[in-house]
Design goal:
The structure is a single chain. The protein is of the alpha/beta class and 225 residues long. 44% of the residues lie in helices and 23% in strands. It has one domain (22-220): von Willebrand factor, type A domain (Rossmann fold). Strands 3-2-1-4-5-6 form a six-stranded mixed beta sheet, sandwiched between helices.
């Protein structure tokens, strides 16, 4: 009986310790898999994001924070029924972790069904993940990439406002291959929260450079250009 009680106390202690683990940032990367994204464009998103985590500046930014680590998860999204976690929560605290994450991101295949562009549902999914993640962080951020406007689900402004009230920042990466004014759409309707910003990729070929800049700014926090 005493052994059983000890085991229960140990399990509770381990679970509580994990729940209390502190990180500088909880970040959800949301990858557009809607109808407008073909196989080549999907690969450019995946490979560009993976490559960013092998960049010394990104790794240096991660380790420079108060706790020297961040928590990251990745989802793919399209319509209101398709938001799939493709890389579950992982702690990144140095080069080895970052390279493992890069491999996991690069290795993922397209999991979601092609469909409409429900940015609002993707934000809602990412927000729920941030709030339920077993880590504590001073900052919670959703990094949402898209090449089109919200055309399914709730009004994106309503979901944005609800999410921001929870203390979550929404940043956007607007890919201007189809909608030339998408960065303004993101600025006015999608992003929100402390330090929120829009990063522009002029094409999918520019995605790798854009996501690297965006991640660096997100990881380091406010005031970084």
């Amino acid at each position: 009986m005493a052994l059983q009680i000890w085991l229960i106390v140990l399990i509770v202690t381990v679970v509580d310790a994990k729940a209390q683990e502190r990180v500088d940032l909880k970040l959800v990367l949301a990858i557009d898999c809607s109808y407008s994204v073909d196989a080549t464009e999907f690969d450019l998103q995946i490979h560009g994001t993976a490559a960013a985590f092998t960049n010394p500046a990104i790794i240096g930014a991660i380790t420079s924070g108060k706790y020297g680590k961040i928590a990251i998860a990745v989802i793919q999204w399209s319509n209101t029924r398709n938001q799939i976690v493709t890389v579950p929560w992982a702690i990144i605290s140095g080069q080895i972790d970052a390279y493992k994450l890069a491999v996991a991101i690069k290795s993922q295949t397209r999991k979601t069904a092609e469909g409409a562009t429900s940015i609002s549902t993707a934000i809602d999914k990412a927000a729920n993940m941030l709030l339920s993640a077993p880590y504590q962080a001073d900052r919670m951020v959703i990094d949402i990439a898209a090449d089109g406007e919200n055309n399914a689900g709730e009004r994106v402004e309503r979901v944005r406002d609800k999410t921001v009230r929870l203390g979550i920042t929404i940043n956007g990466l607007s890919i201007l291959n189809e909608v030339g004014y998408l960065n303004y759409y993101f600025q006015n309707r999608v992003i929100g929260g402390e330090g929120a910003f829009v990063q522009i990729a002029n094409s999918y070929g520019d995605f790798g450079k854009a996501i690297r800049k965006k991640l660096l700014r997100e990881i380091l926090g406010n005031g970084v250009s």
